[in-house]
Amino acid sequence: MRRPYDLPSLTALSCFEAAARKASFKDAAQEMSVTPAAVSHQIKALELDLGCSLFVRRSRGVELTEKGAFLFLSIRRGFEGISEAVTQIRDRHETVDVTIRTTTAISSLWLMPKISAFWKIHPSVSVSQVTSDVPSTSGHCDLSIHYGDPDESGVEHRLLFQDRIVALGTAAFAAQHGVSSIADLRKVPLIHMNNEENGWTTWTDWFEALGHAAPKGRGFFVNNYMIALQAAQDDVGAVLGWDGLVSSVMAAGRLIALVPQSVSSPVPFHLRIHAKATAKSRMFADWLVKAI
């Protein structure tokens, strides 16, 4: 299989970089915990691959040729970039105080403004988000936000909010389809979430809670709530909205309640506190609940 980069052996490049920096095969070998013969073998193989000499061998060491100096400069820049990236990754891992997992919708619509407010009060506490719209039990996190019955998980939790679910659309969509009642709403295009793993309330659930049959209109199915909201703003159809979650969208007038009726959310949004949560994670959890 063809490699994506036109590179010789990385082992040979490492040996060359050490030998060029030290100006000695012997010192390079000592640094890399190998024999001078092994370093010499790697560099000979590299020179054969490139079709040129990289060093001038002297009795008291080696000197770079013009092409060797050119290669050394390029390799050093590359290694410095890799070293900087590795250092940042290691440091970032050590400095993250709180890791919280949630969906893209909850992160964008609700959590990010809360984190921004938290940082103004606690600037030294770092918070890292892991956003995913697929439920997962893998990967470390201190906290996670869920929509559902908190008692089913058996995990320590805090209730966040349990709001009302409204039918949303644009004013233009309401005018175009003449929506003023639930009977009208049953006939218009509706945007559905087809990711059942998240357990979000469906249009059928919503109509049944209000004593009506399932909708008859055209359906548009997506697996991401942010896409669903954008589709509604583009007049593709009506979408269900949790008023506590989409309050900023409604306040801006991008979506409006199409009918006056709404239903109470059957389950709350809640925060799970995982077993290995840090003390700062618990402090953030307590602050988050009080900030609602």
UniProtKB/TrEMBL annotation:
The keyword Acyltransferase does not apply. PROSITE patterns: HTH_LYSR. It comes from Shinella sedimenti. Belongs to the LysR transcriptional regulatory family. Keywords: DNA-binding, Plasmid, Transcription, Transcription regulation. It comes from the Bacteria. This is LysR substrate-binding domain-containing protein. Residues 8-65 form the HTH lysR-type domain. The keyword Metal-binding does not apply. InterPro entries: LysR-type_TF_proteobact-type, LysR_HTH_N, LysR_subst-bd, WH-like_DNA-bd_sf, WH_DNA-bd_sf. Gene3D superfamilies: Periplasmic binding protein-like II, Winged helix-like DNA-binding domain superfamily/Winged helix DNA-binding domain.
